[in-house]
Amino acid sequence: MRTDQEKADGQRILAGESEATCELGFRGADFAPQEYGIAFQPQAMILIGRDWIDTEANRRAQGRDIGSLTLQSFRQRIGYWKTVGYPERSVGEMELPGVYDDHGTCCAAYDFLERFCGVRWYGPREVNIVRPSRKTLTIRGKDVRRSPALKHRNALSMASWPFMQKQWDIPSAPELYLYWRRLRLGGEPWTANHTIFPQTVKTVFNDPEYQAQGPGRSSQICYSHPELVERLVREARDFFGGKPLPEGLKAIGDCFAIVPDDNAHWCACDRYQALRAQGKDADTG
Ligand SMILES: [Zn+2]
Predict the structure, then answer these.
(1) What is the pLDDT averaged over residues 166-179?
(2) Which of 72, 99, 143, 285 is deepest in the core (most CB within 10 A)?
């Protein structure tokens, strides 16, 4: 593996934008978000896509996600060589491409290994990986230029409950983080989970006007109340206008979540009950 600073002769695989790819007319910025390419040229093979640029401004764009995780918290650091079984090559920790950042080159590399080299990742551990052994690498195929059809590929949930942690043996955290990239999880940031729950009912949605009526209904509000609707619209507008999000609400990128608490203590008022009656299979609990 070489950088622009080190000359390399012979057949090359160019990964990510470099002087060499620019000479051949390939620039990361020419790709749309999440788009990447695998290109075969006479002197080189190119793996490239749109990649996040590490600038102060980009580092500052924190976002907010499930469990108050930030974009930065999905740029995990791992000891790469140790994780893939070559501790003797270790050069310390490296930051993996952010799950929610553009990392087209990384996707191009994994797609290339899968599509043209027969590599398969059935799980995060060494035992789950199929890696055909060859003396030489001969690649035939057509150029690829694509982006995933699904723009949201997040099943990651919160740090205390990481996706696939307990499946296929017990992987280490670095193995798991690497596996998420190999599966190409991530994409456009989105978020969900409760946003109307005891905490926010106390601090944000505390207008007595739209609290749920009836006994034991303190963690719900009246979802049919026009003032509540207005309040939610105002919060969403504020967020998209760049204002900080009140604690307990969840929003990121172009996504603003509205999710009630986990119980069926719905408002007992006539207007809400009439609305509910329209759902003929509604649970009456
Ligand atoms: Zn009501």
Answers:
(1) 84
(2) 99
